[in-house]
User: Fold this.
Amino acid sequence: MLRTAEITAELTGLEDSHRLYWRSQVEFSLDCFICERTGRTTVFDRGAEQALCSGSRSGFTRHRTAARLAGFDTTSGPERLAVRALIDFWWAPFTDTRDGIKAAAPTSHPWVRLGLAYCCPDAKESGTGSIQTNLVRPYRLTCKHCDRLLGVDRESPAVRLLG
Assistant:
């Protein structure tokens, strides 16, 4: 069955000079019917026809899976940077081959990581960072070169199953 998940996130209190922006790669936990494991980290890249499942630690390794980043929209304002990602994924019921847990769509404990990038005007170097669901909030994103505050993540990224 084809399912769609919507992921939204927002940073506030932005610092202007670093030109912070969202990277178009999303990591999202899904229950994978191919390797029959629950809670697999799946990597999505904008424009890719398939996603990459992390597989399991024993036996089945990283593999392509029937999922894609179907939409990726960003908005920015004077003090705000927001993102909305749509993830299309195929899901079928199964029981985890190692833990005996029944699969769900999305997985029972959805996790997401969203990447960010910027350019430090002081160091004249680029940098990257990320936010994810399991960070302590508020999370303060700082420049790795000059330690300046880039923005604040006050709420965990939201995951919503559509349709």
Notes: The chain has one domain: 2-162. The chain has a mean pLDDT of 93. Residues 2-162 form one domain. The two ends are 11 Å apart (CA to CA).
